Amino acid sequence: MKISLFIPCFVDAFFPQTGVHIVNILERLGHTVDYPMDLTCCGQPAFNSGYWDETRDVAKRVLQFFEKADVVVIASGSCGAMLKVFYPDLFKESKQHQAALDLSAKTHEFSEFLVNELNVTDLGARFPAKVTFHDGCHGLRELKIKNEPRRLLEHVRDLEIVEMQEAETCCGFGGTFAAKFPAISTAMGEVKSASAIETGADYIVSNDSSCLMHIQGLLDRQKKQIRTIHLAQVLDSVDA
Known about the structure:
The protein is an alpha/beta fold and 240 residues long. It has 2 domains: 2-116, no CATH class; 121-235, Rossmann fold. The chain is 52% helix and 15% strand. The protein is built from 13 helices and 8 strands. Helix 12 (209-221) links the parallel strand 7 (203-206) and strand 8 (227-230). The longest helix has 17 residues, at 182-198. The mean pLDDT is 94.
C-alpha cells in the first residue's frame, strides 16, 4: 500500500523523530510511505481561534496535496480530527466540500490505522518499562480512539501498562488554550501529572506530541522522574 503521511507542524518542528518512528514501522510492514515536503499546517490554530476564512486558505493546500492520495495517516489525534471531522464543516456549502469529505474518509490517526485498517496489533516491539496512557482530547472525543493504542501496547514485550485515574482528563494544553489561559492550563496539567505519578509508571505514553510536551514541561519543573514518550517510539523499539 502507498501511504501518504501527514506530519503536523508541531511534530515537524519539535519532535521530528516521531515521524521517523512512524515511517520505520510502516516500511517494516511492507508499505511505501510518501511525505509531501512542501506540506504545511492543517490550519487548526486559526480554526480554533475563530479565523475560518484564513483557515480555509491554509486548508485548501492540504486538500490539493492529498487529492490523489490513496490513504492518509497522521501522527496526531488533534490534527487528525481537524482533517477528518472539522474540514467537512469548514468547507460546507463550498466547492471544496466534496474534496473535504473525500479526505476525511481516507484519513486515519496512526494507531487506529494500524489496528483497524491493517489489522496489526503486534509489531514485535520490546520495551521493558511500566507505562500509563494519556488519552488526548481530540483523539478520544472527536475520533473515538480509546482501545486501539492500548491493544498495541498490550503486545509489546516486557511492557506493563497501568491505567491512571485521570486517563481521559484533558492535560490542559489545548493549543491556543494554553497561551490564552496559562493559569488554568497549568492547573489542569498538574492534575494530569499527579494522576500519572500515582501509578508508579516510568513513562506516560500518548499519540499526541503536543500533550506530551505540555506534561513533560510540568514534570520537569516538579523535578519528577517519570518521562513522556510517543506511542510510535515504543512500537519502534524492536530488538535488532
